[in-house]
Amino acid sequence: MEPAAPEPPTAASGGARDAGPPYPRSDDGAPPSTGELIARISRWIHGRSRDRLAPFGTTPAAARALVVLLRTGESQRMGDLAERLRIVPRSVTTLVDDLEREGLVERRPDPDDRRSTRVHLTDAGRERGAAMLRARHEAADDLVAVLDEADRDELHRLLSLLDAAAHADWCRHGRRGPRRDDPAAG
């Protein structure tokens, strides 16, 4: 079990700029790399999101599925939902089974392809998805609250660049990333 990420510095403790390194150094005593910091922050946000989602009695994976369906604003084919969630189709079947049991989604035949099934949000699923999306945003907002507006804007700009690059890589190479023997992998 992974240890819980430490609480980020707060404005009361002098904020992010004055708090010094908020996390312990790496095992070798060196300051953590940018990638390590991103991973730590991601774990912290994931843990805080999990805490905020706990009252809903829904797993983070189910919350992601509801949010994907909510954001697209339309039903999704099971395979497309699996692709958007970046999980294997077998896993999306189990996930949709659970959400359907809770009355949050329903399966309907695809009118354009008799072999396919579409997943539709129910009214209860839309309500829960919207509440979960708010909870996830609040968890992330807790973290960036230590930054002033200019720093939040700069962080958003930089994370948007990383997000676009990660999305482009996903579109080019899929779930596993580039193969090591792929000359295009650089």
From TrEMBL:
Protein name (Swiss-Prot/TrEMBL): MarR family transcriptional regulator
Pfam families: MarR_2
PROSITE patterns: HTH_MARR_2
Record InterPro entries: HTH_MarR-typ, MarR/SlyA-like, WH-like_DNA-bd_sf, WH_DNA-bd_sf
SMART domains membership: HTH_MARR
Annotated region (Disordered), positions in chain: 1-36
Domain of life: Bacteria
Domain HTH marR-type intervals: 31-164
